[in-house]
Amino acid sequence: MRIVLLAGVLVLIWSGLWVKTYFIQVVHGLELSEGAKAQYWTRESVRGLRGDIYSSRGSLLAKSVTVDSVFVRPKEIEDPERVSRVLSRILSTERGALAKRLNDDSGFVWIERKIGDKKAEQIRSKELAGVYLTQEPRRIYPQGRLAGQLLGFVGMDNRGLEGVELSFDSRLSGGKRELLVQRDAFGRVLYAPGELTEELSGKDVVLTLDTRIQFAAEKAISEAVREYGGDHGMFLVVKVDNGHILASAQYPFFNPNCFRRYSPRLWRNRAALDAFEAGSSMKPFLVASALEEGLCEPKKIYYCENGTWSFKGYTVKDTHNYGWLPVRKILRYSSNVGAAKIGLDLGAGPYARDLRALGLGEETSLPLPSENKGILRNSMQWNKVELASASFGQGFSQNLYQMGRAYLCLANKGVRKPLTLVREPARDKPEPRRVYSEQTAQKVLGMLESVVEGDGTGTRANIKGVRVGGKTGTAQQALASGGYGEDYLAVFAGLMPARDPEYLLLAVVDSPEENHYGGVVAAPAVRKVGQTLLRHTKAFREWRPTLTQDASQVSRDKEGARSFRIITRKSGKRETDASRVPDLRGMPLRLAMELLARRGSVPAVKGSGVVVAKQKPDPGSEWGEENVVLWLGGRDKEG
Amino acid sequence: MKQDERKNQAGKVGKWGLIVSGLAAFGLSLGLVWLNVQMVNISYDIKQLESELQSEKTLNAKLEVERMHLVSDYKLQEMASRLGLRPPEKEQIRRLR
């Protein structure tokens, strides 16, 4: 009986279990299965980091790194007093405002986004209930204000808002993917995105900028603006053979790391956004057009009206009282009267046609947002007075890049080439096309060389030992209400070397007060950057003899200017015995230093010159503890 | 008689088959559980290693940024002026050739 009872109970329990199983598996099976899935699986979005920006030499200009952001869940905070005290101390924020946010009704409140590692670690170590750290990408510009306006910046959501960051936003932005991932009973996700993050990362952008030249340009233009009390300044350096922009500087500076601290006025890349009348610095294009049309030759003379010419009720003035001047001197002395007369001879049609062919009034296609394409009216609308003023660069405007592209055409012997700012991703370039004949361009380049020599207007751009060409510009600035005001724009366009340019340098200073002449205000900035270019570029390396050559002779032309290349004389191999002091007498100092340096000896050098006249210890003697002294003789021919 | 023996033998074989199948099913179930546990453990390990790798990469990126900042022209200029360094005067330059 007991057995039957026990069996009955077991059958009942067993049946109950089967019924329960039936309900779980069959009746509520689908619903519970979905519930389990919701517990064990979750959606997680994986986002790749934004791509980097590099200079042409591999210097890092912008990079995204992961940093911490602080948020709180107010309902989980146990001791609001302590939390506000600790957070305000670590984050250096006002405690009252912070306490108010901690008492917010919402379940999630940001306290501070994208904080530094040190602060994050301090907060983490405090283990405050209800205070959390989450990771977010932060854009960092390690070079600080270098090329700030050109690079632009990104917003809190990591989208480009200005400059290259905006232009290449789609390339730089990292991708995003939503994944279904498994998690454990504690809610910990078991999936690690690993390589997927790399896969989703944005692509890098490589610019043509050279940070050393960019720095030199920023330094030079900031000094020019500060010295002459200008409002702002711009500087552009272009490599002539390929149109690569090596520097695009602007002052006042802007640091994209903390863009909110700056006025939006300083965010603007003026080189692309501001169109200006460049004044006399556009005269070379007038002369080139006149030469191209066969209207004049460099020696053809014009009467410059002793500096003041009344024409159709308007007065054209020069800075000096010039009488008859040949065309080359009109450019050299920057005579407005002479230029106006050349322009009137040339006519509006050919002049405007050539300006348009140079790319004025047309965007440069550089990947920069909202480029100002300037104003170049239809030549049919120009009257005689407008043609006269256009002849000395007033009445039409262009941005700095357009001006650079026009000069690049002259520097490339009359062939128009595009400017390039980005090396990677490479873009299709338009075919180069000829605007001026090579002869015309060569003649103009020759005239521009004379501007920087002797009594030219641009002598402050002269660099000893290098032929520099250039043109000054002192432009009156147009008023928004019409007409011209009292403010000027000081401009200097430099070409280096003058006859066969390798580098183009443009400096612009807006509204200088102490002095407004381009030859005084802007030309020295071009000289400074030119000197840096010589120090850092191939041109200068070619200028120096190599260590395997024991003597050099610098070639000089008629005017005594030193060219880049040197004539070298190779010497026979010298017998040397490492255990004894070598005979350094008669040896160029550079080679003597090199030999001693290999032995680990740094000599004291006395006297002037470049050739070792006397030495101590004597040649052939045993090496001792005695310091090596070299006495120099022979004149330094380079002075 | 022979038929009974055959039935008994078949019954024994069936019983053993059932036991072996049951044991196999039990063993396979344990194996499945073990595999799942292993999978979860490996997932934790991978997750841990991935986190470490990510931290190292992040640190590397931050150090790269810091290095580029320290060797930037503006920083070097600032340090140079703090240390009293400046470009040499003309008479201080000796050209080596």
Core attributes:
heterodimer; A: 639 residues; alpha+beta; Penicillin-binding protein 2a (Domain 2); Beta-lactamase; five-stranded antiparallel beta sheet; 23 helices; 24 strands; disordered C terminus; B: 97 residues; mainly alpha; rod-shaped
Model description:
The complex is a heterodimer of chains A (639) and B (97). With 639 residues, chain A is of the alpha+beta class. Chain A is built from 23 helices and 24 strands. The model of chain A is unreliable at 541-575 and 635-639 (pLDDT under 50). Chain B has one domain. Helix content of chain B is 81%, strand content 0%. The chains are: A alpha+beta (639), B mainly alpha (97). The A-B interface holds A 59-60, 63, 65-66, 117, 140, 142-146, 182, 184, 188-194, 197, 211-212, 215, 219, 544-545, 552, 588-590, 593, 605, 610, 636, 638 and B 40, 43-44, 46-47, 49-51, 53-54, 58, 61-62, 64-66, 68-69, 72-75, 77, 94-97.
Percent strand of chain B? under 5%
CATH superfamily of the largest domain in chain A: DD-peptidase/beta-lactamase superfamily
CATH class of the largest domain in chain A: Alpha Beta
* Helix and strand run of chain B: HH
Q: Care to count the β-strands of chain A?
A: 24
Looking at the overall shape, the CATH architecture of the largest domain in chain A is: 3-Layer(aba) Sandwich
Largest interface pair? A-B, 37 and 27 residues
- Please name the CATH topology of the largest domain in chain A: Beta-lactamase
In short, what is this structure?
The complex is a heterodimer of chains A (639) and B (97). Chain A has 639 residues and is α+β, with helices and mostly antiparallel strands.
How are the SSEs ordered, and which strands pair?
The complex is a heterodimer of chains A (639) and B (97).
Chain A: H1 2-27, H2 29-40, E1 41-47, E2 53-54, E3 60-72, H3 80-91, H4 95-102, E4 109-115, H5 117-126, E5 131-140, H6 148-151, H7 163-167, H8 169-172, E6 176-182, H9 195-200, E7 205-207, H10 211-227, E8 232-239, E9 245-251, H11 264-267, H12 270-273, H13 283-292, E10 301-303, E11 308-311, E12 314-317, E13 324-326, H14 327-333, H15 336-346, H16 348-357, H17 384-391, H18 400-411, E14 415-416, E15 422-424, E16 433-434, H19 438-451, E17 469-478, E18 484-496, E19 503-510, H20 518-521, H21 523-536, H22 538-543, E20 551-556, E21 562-569, H23 589-599, E22 604-606, E23 611-616, E24 629-633
Parallel strand pairs in A: 2-7, 22-24
Antiparallel strand pairs in A: 1-6, 2-3, 3-4, 3-5, 7-15, 8-9, 8-19, 10-13, 11-12, 14-16, 17-18, 18-19, 20-21, 23-24
Helix pairs in contact in A: 3-4, 3-5, 10-21, 13-15, 13-16, 13-19, 14-19, 15-17
Chain B: H1 2-70, H2 73-82
